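Problem statement: downstream parser choked on a complex file, so we are re-checking the raw output for the 1,3-dihydroxyacetonephosphate run. The parser issue turned out to be on our end (a line-ending mismatch), but while we're here, posting the original submission so the record is complete.
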Amino acid sequence: MENRNAALIEKILNFKKRRDAIILAHNYQLGEIQDIADFVGDSLELSQNAARTDASVIVFCGVHFMAETAAILCPDKTVLLPDINAGCPMADMIDAERLKQKKKEHPNAAVVCYINSSAEVKAESDICCTSANTVKVVESLAAEEILFIPDQYLGHYASTKTDKKIILWPGFCPTHARIRPEDIIKLKQEYPKAKVAVHPECKPEVIALADEVLSTGGIIGLARRAEIEEMIVGTEMGIIHRLKKENPGKRFISVSEQAVCPNMKLITLEKVLWSLEEMAPEVKVPEEIRSKARVSVDKMLEVS
Ligand code: 13P
Ligand code: SF4
């Protein structure tokens, strides 16, 4: 396995040079993918990196909406998603038609769209946000009424941090829904000194037990702090690889072995190599949608 991976990695690095490519990977990717990436980060950091890279090709190791956001920001680059079936079930819980209907019901509301959404949905929204900047984005708007899509739990969390009226859409992340308060209570008894850090896609009863509610990038940053020795981590398990790698000697405990995003795990070393060899599958956004979606993404990047 080690040898096989070493051979694959060598080929990937050669092809990467030949194609003038950069590899971006989300914090939930398999460890071996994180280890070959030029940059590993959360959704906001990855879109900021995509926006500023000089490379001609972006190999996006993440899920479809992330690669699509890179394509929205970089129309002149080739954006590859090594497995085109790597989607996000939460992003699929809304579409542009249903959003248009909902907007008619709330004509005075500004639409804040979580980045976990399609380009068509972004194009129908006023501004995007990620888990790293939700409250900042909501507070940046003049409107007092916000239609928050599609994550009801992130929207609910934002509603506890603002005086604005937040209208929720009933979307959710099936992976974060598996993180249960009873598991955190048990782990807190076992590790009483550990800090509890959870992702804002978790349910409110989980968030109520947390010391910190952070994006995956925020959790990585918190773990680096000197006073942190043990952390109970309430998000997708892939983040544990990076936490351990960057902080030897510290202890990281995942709340649930069930918190796995199967879509994130579809990207493998073999598929990264194939995508560089074949320059496929490519993620493209039709120009009329891309230019509208770009306005929502740019507004978010200005606020961040
Ligand atoms: P982050 O932006 O915090 O990395 O979250 C992305 C995501 O899909 C969480 O499930
Ligand atoms: Fe989507 Fe949840 Fe997977 Fe994140 S963890 S990509 S929100 S399904």
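For whoever reads this later: The chain is about 45% helix and 15% strand.
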